[in-house]
Design a protein that fits this description.
The chain is built from 5 helices and no strands. With about 100 residues, the protein is mainly alpha-helical. The chain has one domain (about 25-99): Serine Threonine Protein Phosphatase 5, Tetratricopeptide repeat, CATH 1.25.40. Helix 2 (about 25-40) runs antiparallel to helix 3. The longest helix has 18 residues, at about 25-40. The protein is globular, with a radius of gyration of 15 Å. The relative contact order is 0.11.
Length: about 100
């Protein structure tokens, strides 16, 4: 039977569904968001990059790469205080992440 809300609503529900951490999918989701934020930033879509990296930061994922990319996104978005904080978080995990 077809979805009464249509395929667009179905895709939105699938994209917004949160994967349980016990399945190990949170990391994959966060890594995908990090990659998307990088791509958005490279394409000059700063606002999109910020929304995406903020979603990644809202997960339990906590890596130097996440915080280093977040630092770059916040710097490009004109938020130097948040950028500095994320850079410090990245360096605390791996000092080489922010060289």
């Amino acid at each position: 039977m077809a979805d009464p809300d249509g395929p667009r609503a179905q895709r939105r529900r699938l994209l917004n569904r949160r994967a349980p951490a016990s399945l190990g999918l949170v990391g994959a989701d966060a890594e995908a968001k990090i990659s998307l934020a990088r791509a958005d930033l490279a394409a000059g879509r700063r606002a999109d990059a910020r929304v995406t990296i903020e979603a990644a930061l809202a997960t339990p994922w906590d890596t130097a790469e996440l915080h280093a990319v977040a630092a770059a996104v916040f710097r490009a978005a004109g938020d130097p205080e948040q950028s500095t904080a994320e850079r410090a978080r990245a360096a605390a995990i791996d000092p080489h992440a922010v060289e």
